User: What shape does this take?
Amino acid sequence: MGMTMAEKVLARTSGQDVVEAGQNVTARIDRMMTHEGFVMCAMTLQGMKIEKLNDPDKVVVLFDHYFPAPEPKYAEYHDFSRKAVKAFGIKNYLGYPGVCHQVMCEKGFVLPGQLILGTDSHSSTYGALGAAGAGIGTTEMSYAMATGELWMQVPKTIRINLEGEPGNGLSAKDMILYIAGKYGTDFAQYKSIEFVGPLAEQMSISGRMTVSNMGIEVGAKFALFEADQKTLDFLKPVGKGPAAVFKSDDDAVFEEELTVDISSLEPQVACPHNPGNAKTISEVGDVAVDQVYLGSCTNGRIEDMAVAAKILKGKKVSDSTRLLVNPASREVLMDMIKTGYLEILMEAGAHMITPGCGACLGGHLGLIGKGETCLASTNRNFPGRMGSGESFVYLGSPATVAASAITGKITDPREFWQGTSF
Amino acid sequence: MEKIKGSVWKFSDNIDTDVLAPMQSMNLPWEERKGKILHTRPGFVNDVKEGDIIVAGKNWGCGSSREQAAENIKNLGISAVVAESFGRIFFRNAIAIALPAVACPGITDAFDEGDELELDLKASTVRNVTKNTTLDAIAYTKDMVAMIDKGGMLAVLQEKLGGQ
Assistant: This one.
């Protein structure tokens, strides 16, 4: 019997020829990623007098949630962490390069077929490069760092066939919001998703990252795309090891096979307070926005900035709102400088937020107040997500965010842009 | 392992980690942090008593990997969460810190607030003592039961390293 992508990864990492969905295994982890979660891991391990990690070379540490430090104690956490990084002999300490998931991919720490766990739920992003990425907590990460392994249940797989030609104004973000709205935010709970089909093949690595990133918003354990020539080309200059094309066997067993045809899909917006509360933009009505937020690991890549620059070129951000731009990484910011997108956005009135998690998760650098509304290109709009417990977050594509910056209310991007971004 | 018994508080679907552990509360001392947990249900954190049990709908703990979500529930004195289903990271985090989190389809309809619940992890049954009905939960593996019994994943780690 053939295996799914998830089964292949967990068979290899648990040293077995074949595994099947439902089985529990002890898996050797290929890569462990921690951000500020490392503080808890280091304290836990040192508290237990564990001085050596199983394999420090598998660990990547960087800081993105609270950099630059919003309060003195975060500077102290970073200081403690840098010392712990040295003490544990972790070579892959990356400093403050932007949001972990973007950086893990662009620096080549993610390879097809790997099992990668991170202390961040959006570790599902690694599925865009064909890696089984999943989030865990800091206790489990402490265990994984000490032993190199963790118990995993082999998940069932839902295969989603993506097809159709995107219409004007449509982005990969609209598609994943539509999927969350149509099938629910728990439809892939405990399961692995494989995105396949003609549209999946056509999509850019950036578009795939947006979709895999939000895999966790539909409950998925892994949100995988098949690695293909595009993946190999992306990894060629940066990959930390050989990459290979990677897909399920023809006779693999899937729990469910769905088809999502986007031919007639219109731009989507997820209304408060759930990513699954997705509506077609025309159904959203007249919603004034106090803040618009372009960026994050979901939609803070150069491709997203290109769309925003196209829409905002020669335009001005409305006086009734404020546009915050948060590139997903320093590399993206450098590319924004080289391409001139930064100047276009600044001319339009954007305020730049340093690469990192920023206000996406309500940490710092652009929180919203009581009664305020923000439209964001981020991934979650739970109650209080970006600030006050009595605020409202809507989610949309970078194009919808940019269009709404011009008008000060949630606006159909097709009023300003006829392109597509997949 | 002993059965876990307690009085039930009911919650709906999709109670997320941002509500269980709001970002602005994460590094506050417990007394200040406590007041911000489950802010969508004012008063709960003061009314809940040691040993009480949460019965929830679908997708409890969806969202972030922040372990504080499970830790906050444990620190409130809650002895178990029984839900229709869980966000998988919360589910794992809870077991890792020895907070029993048990998925039990049908649980929402089987309990009213204040009913007494008895959870048998080994037999994987959930009994409504008040109404004298019993449901089958989704079973833990032997290793999961042992992890809860020993006090969590770090106790397992200590044992593993000590044994080498």
User: Anything to note?
Assistant: The radius of gyration of chain B is 15 Å.
